[in-house]
Amino acid sequence: MKAAVLFLSATMVAALCPDAAAEEAGKAAPALSLDLNDAQPSDKGCRLTFVVTNELGADLSRAGFEIALFNEAGVVDRLTVLEFQNLPAGKTKVTRFDLAGVDCTRVSRVLVNSATECTGSAIDPTACMRALKTSARAGIAFGV
C-alpha cells in the first residue's frame, strides 16, 4: 500500500512539474571550442589556423594557451604560448599563428598543456581549461 501511494505521488509530481533532467539535457554545457583547422607551410615556418568559439556565456578579454608540439617520433619538439586575445561571448573567431622554424610535415600532435591567460568579467580563471573542447581538421592529433 505504501509503495502504491509513493508511486502515485511520484507520478503526480512528474505530471505537474517539467522534467528538469530533460530540460538540462537540451542545454549545452559552457564550452570554449578550439579547432585546429589547418596547418600550412609559411615563409616563417608553419602556420597553424584555429577556429575558436566562446560559449562560456561571458566575454574573454584575454585567452592564451601553452601548447606542446610533438614530432613524428612522438617527442616534444617545442613548447610555445598562443595568445588568442579577446573572445566575445557567443562569437566564433579565426586566428592564425606562424611558428618560426617549425616544419608542419614533422608535427604529429599538438597538445594544449595549460591556459596561460583566461580573464574577463565573470570568468573563472580555470574556465578556459575546464570547459575546453578540442577538435582537429588539419590531419594532426590535437587535444588536452
C-alpha Rg (nearest Å): 22 Å
Q: What portion of residues belong to β-strands? A: over 45%
| Global geometry | elongated
Instruction: Identify the strand order in the major beta sheet.
Output: 5-2-1-7
Secondary-structure element pattern, one letter each: HHEEEEEEHEE
> What are the low-pLDDT stretches, counting only 5+ consecutive residues below 50?
3-23
Q: What helical percentage do the residues reach?
A: 10-25%
* Biggest sheet overview: 4 strands, mixed
Count every beta strand, where a strand is a DSSP E run of 2 or more residues. Answer: 8
Classification by helices and strands: alpha/beta
Number of helices: 3
Walk me through this protein's architecture.
A four-stranded mixed β-sheet has the order 5-2-1-7. It has a four-stranded mixed β-sheet with strand order 4-3-6-8. The relative contact order is 0.23. Helices cover 17% and strands 51% of the residues. It has helices spanning 2-16, 20-25, 127-130, and strands at 31-41, 45-55, 60-70, 76-87, 92-100, 109-119, 132-136, 141-143. By secondary structure, the protein is α/β, with parallel strands linked by helices. It has three helices and eight strands. The termini are far apart. It is elongated and about 40 Å long. Residues 3-23 have low confidence and may be disordered.
